[in-house]
Amino acid sequence: MAAAAAAAAAPSPAPCFPSTRHTLPGLVSVRVSRRVKVAVAIADPAPAFNSVTAFAPATVANLGPGFDFLGCAVADASLSLGDTVTATLDPSLPPGTVAIASVTSPSRPTLADRLSRDPLRNCAGVAAIAALRALDVKSHAVSIHLTKGLPLGSGLGSSAASAAAAAKAVDALFGSLLHQDDLVLAGLESEKAVSGFHADNIAPAILGGFVLVRSYDPFHLIPLSSPPALRLHFVLVTPDFEAPTSKMRAALPKQVAVHQHVRNSSQAAALVAAVLQGDATLIGSAMSSDGIVEPTRAPLIPGMAAVKAAALEAGALGCTISGAGPTAVAVIDGEEKGEEVGRRMVEAFANAGNLKATATVAQLDRVGARVISTSTLE
Length: 378
What we know:
Keywords: Amino-acid biosynthesis, ATP-binding, Kinase, Nucleotide-binding, Threonine biosynthesis, Transferase. By secondary structure, this protein is of the alpha+beta class. The chain has 2 domains: 49-225, Ribosomal Protein S5, domain 2 (2-Layer Sandwich), CATH 3.30.230; 232-364, Alpha-Beta Plaits (2-Layer Sandwich), CATH 3.30.70. It has 11 helices and 14 strands. It has helices at residues 2-9, 123-135, 158-173, 180-194, 202-207, 245-250, 258-277, 280-287, 293-297, 304-313, 338-353; strands spanning 27-31, 37-41, 51-61, 70-75, 82-89, 98-104, 142-147, 210-216, 219-224, 232-239, 318-321, 328-333, 357-364, 370-375. The strands form 2 sheets. Strands 3, 4, 5, 6, 7, 8, 9, 10, 11, 12, 13 and 14 form a 12-stranded mixed sheet that branches. It has a two-stranded antiparallel ribbon with strand order 1-2. The radius of gyration is 21 Å and the shape is globular.
């Protein structure tokens, strides 16, 4: 732990955040003349709690034609489909630093051994450090406990869930002072080290629901509010097969024909309209209509084409690759068909891809990262 804390304490440049319209809480603008403003440092924020535990859900990025700019959050009733981080004040560490006290994975015990406890090489650690800096905390240190509920390299936003839970927990520890955009940017510092500078996982992991990433400079996220009556559920089928994001991104075409661009753009626009209108049928149809990314990635996932066909034949409204894969995601209206659609997709992975797979039926998570418990200061 000492080595980890020392690493976090080492001088490093401030996070390269894109411009936003929000002022961080550690600075206040003071007018000293008609023409001049100066930023005056104020005391760093006092802790609101001794310990905070936060949960962040799994995410489905791309949603077919929305490559790198559309995503949504998904969760199950037991909140097992996501990651949990406990952030605790730790007076044994140098002020302003973060240490990772433990990493556990109850459902996948060997997974924890694969994750570094160096906060500079762990998604939760990087996001916690970025949140601490955004808050301008200099007088306190934080140790974090990460509990992984998501597998690695699954296409379910595993790294984003860790980062989102960590940023949320650290912010809540000091009174929840950060704007949602700043929480996303803290998580994005972690994401860019793992899978590139794209927010289609981390944004819905923080905000919940569907999110459109409009631009990075200036940073602009657009939450897409769907009608409450939309009973959208997702059948997530994950095979025993890892699809590293770097490998899946390397497979993408370097050039795209104009007609392909036009078609995909229209499908992405239809998907956004369907979410706003609460049209589950159109959501599924548009999600299934990616003509650029899915065709290049599907052959890298054994059995994926057969899995998609099986989902549609079983009554799913649409099916595509979740994120970079290998998880296949099917959309259904309500959960009644979930078990049968999942069973057929698992069978297709076994028969066409020779892969064992597990199915989970989840619902649209409209909350995103949330505090689930706190411990008061003594």
